[in-house]
């Protein structure tokens, strides 16, 4: 007579597998013990999955089905991660080695800085995506990961005052170029979300919606977003009443109502509507720095 657990022994190369049966083949593990066994996966051991598949208990069948779903999700994540490294691989095939993703956060808000980041990944990171598609907790976790394991990260911050002086497009380009210049060691190729960078001497490629299509750009997106959100939380404490911690400076109705009620603060971009609409314009021509008839 062949023991019902003999097939499990075969799967382990003729040796008894880790005990599903508490050291005795006639005593099965409890469902709680089985759940603990698979809690770290996937991947799962083949013997574990075979035992679950043969277990007639309803709870074991549900656990087996849950493991299969996790395997499918892991395969889908692996496929997505590989697809998001396509542009990096193409650059490597063309001889480039230090490929940086570049992105910014904060072009559209009425207040706060614009933040750009440049990132050279040492390896792909599971879960990376456009920062806007992630929760704050996911962004913070990825932010911590990106500052470990040999990834190169640089950032540049352009204040609201500088944005007013330069204009938003020049500030955007300037922030990206500055972040690239701060990377150590320097990158030899850039993948940039949505823009080419005027005057940048590093070869680069513009990728539309790049933060969803490139791991390197997604990494830069996360870095820029987390840094800017932290700055806006600080500004909320410094200038209470505007709700910066909630809307991060964007033109929500709550924010516009606060500007009308309180007036703009130093964190606001004076060149942006509706703030610019409430400001007096200067003289086109001045004489000796004084207004006529003064």
Give a quick precis of the structure.
This protein is of the alpha/beta class.
What would you note in describing this structure?
The chain is flat, with a radius of gyration of 28 Å. Helices cover 45% and strands 10% of the residues. The chain is an alpha/beta fold and 294 residues long. It folds into 2 domains: 78 residues, no CATH class; 129 residues, Ribonuclease H-like superfamily/Ribonuclease H (Nucleotidyltransferase, domain 5). The N terminus and C terminus are likely disordered. The termini are far apart. The protein has 12 helices and 5 strands. The chain has a 5-stranded mixed beta sheet with strand order 3-2-1-4-5. α2 packs parallel to α4 and α7 packs across α8.
CATH architecture of the largest domain: 2-Layer Sandwich
Rg on CA atoms, Å: 28 Å
SSE pattern: HHHHHEEHEHHEEHHHH
Strand tally:
5
- pLDDT averaged over residues: 85
Q: What is the CATH topology assignment of the largest domain? A: Nucleotidyltransferase, domain 5
The backbone outline, from C-alpha atoms, is flat
Describe the main β-sheet briefly: 5 strands, mixed
What is the strand content? 5-15%
**Percent helix range:** 40-55%
Q: Going by CATH, what is the homologous superfamily of the largest domain?
A: Ribonuclease H-like superfamily/Ribonuclease H
Judged by helices, strands and strand pairing, the structural class is alpha/beta
Task: Return residue spans where pLDDT drops below 50 for at least 5 consecutive residues.
Answer: 1-26, 281-294
User: What number of structural domains do the residues give?
Assistant: 2
Please count the helical segments: 12
* Name of the level-1 CATH class of the largest domain: Alpha Beta
Spatial sequence of strands, sheet with the most strands: 3-2-1-4-5
């Amino acid at each position: 007579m062949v023991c019902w657990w003999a097939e499990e022994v075969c799967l382990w190369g003729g040796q008894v597998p880790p005990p599903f049966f508490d050291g005795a083949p006639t005593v099965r593990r409890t469902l709680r013990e089985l759940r603990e066994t698979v809690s770290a996966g996937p991947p799962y051991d083949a013997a574990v999955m075979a035992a679950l598949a043969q277990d007639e208990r309803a709870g074991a069948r549900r656990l087996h089905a849950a493991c299969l779903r996790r395997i499918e999700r892991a395969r889908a994540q692996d496929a997505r991660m590989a697809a998001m490294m396509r542009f990096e691989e193409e650059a490597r095939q063309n001889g480039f080695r230090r490929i940086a993703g570049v992105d910014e956060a904060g072009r559209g808000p009425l207040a706060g800085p614009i933040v750009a980041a440049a990132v050279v990944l040492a390896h792909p990171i599971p879960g990376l995506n456009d920062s806007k598609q992630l929760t704050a907790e996911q962004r913070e976790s990825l932010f911590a990961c990106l500052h470990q394991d040999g990834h190169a990260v640089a950032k540049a911050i352009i204040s609201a005052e500088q944005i007013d002086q330069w204009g938003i497009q020049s500030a955007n380009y300037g922030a990206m170029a500055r972040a690239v210049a701060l990377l150590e060691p320097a990158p030899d190729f850039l993948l940039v979300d949505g823009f080419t960078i005027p005057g940048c001497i590093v070869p680069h490629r513009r990728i539309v919606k790049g933060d969803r299509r490139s791991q390197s750009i997604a990494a830069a997106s996360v870095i820029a977003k987390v840094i800017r959100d932290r700055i806006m939380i600080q500004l909320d404490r410094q200038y209470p009443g505007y709700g910066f911690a909630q809307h991060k400076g964007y033109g929500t109705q709550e924010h516009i109502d606060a500007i009308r009620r309180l007036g703009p603060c130093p964190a606001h971009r004076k060149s942006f509507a509706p703030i610019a609409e409430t400001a007096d314009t200067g003289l086109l021509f001045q004489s000796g720095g004084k207004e006529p008839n003064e």
